[in-house]
Design goal:
The protein is α+β, with helices and mostly antiparallel strands and 186 residues long. Helices cover 21% and strands 22% of the residues.
Length: 186
């Protein structure tokens, strides 16, 4: 007996065969995939060896699917804590240390108490120590300047950043679709 269907998510590709997202990786639960197949909303690109059965059907679980209708990605991502960390590569913009999401905070370059706003252009990733040290002061007052100027990234920039953080699980059938535009070794 093979793995349970619960351990068989499908990689979801847009109609152009690019993943809907890289980080987090666009994966669907096996039940959602089976439903989408029967509603004729997706193409099955690759399958697991795992078979599911019902009284009148036996079907190999899809490991890679593509949407039949192209979904136009938004040009700019939502301003979220996670997307901010991804823009800054999970790196404190003051000391340069890389951390996990549990170790990171965000800092208003121009403090809110001084009229700073919570926008892409005024917020950077910071570790807790640097955030505490900078406090409610400006970079000039604290002698702490961000390593990079904060900016609003595009979804393509976040996608590229996300590709530098491989997921914990990669099925072999996904590799061609996740890294199709990578430089090939001679």
């Amino acid at each position: 007996m093979g793995p349970s269907p619960e351990s068989c998510p499908a990689l979801v590709l847009n109609a152009d065969y690019r993943p809907l997202s890289y980080y987090p990786l666009s994966l669907w639960h096996w039940q959602d995939v089976v439903k989408a197949v029967f509603l004729d909303r997706v193409n099955v690109v690759s399958e697991y060896d795992q078979v599911i059965r019902s009284p009148g059907l036996a079907m190999r679980l899809p490991s890679v699917i593509s949407l039949k209708r192209y979904i136009q990605p938004a040009r700019y991502p939502a301003f979220t804590r996670f997307n901010l960390f991804l823009r800054d590569l999970f790196t404190c913009q003051y000391c340069g240390e890389r951390g996990s999401t549990a170790d990171l905070t965000f800092d208003h370059v121009l403090p809110k108490s001084r009229g700073g706003r919570t926008t892409w252009e005024n917020v950077v990733t910071a570790c807790a120590c640097c955030n505490l040290e900078k406090g409610g002061r400006t970079p000039r007052e604290s002698h702490m300047h961000p390593l990079g100027r904060p900016y609003r990234p595009t979804v393509y920039e976040l996608r590229d950043n996300g590709r530098t953080f491989p997921p914990n699980y990669l099925h072999e059938s996904w590799r061609d679709y996740l890294y199709w535009d990578a430089v090939l070794e001679p």
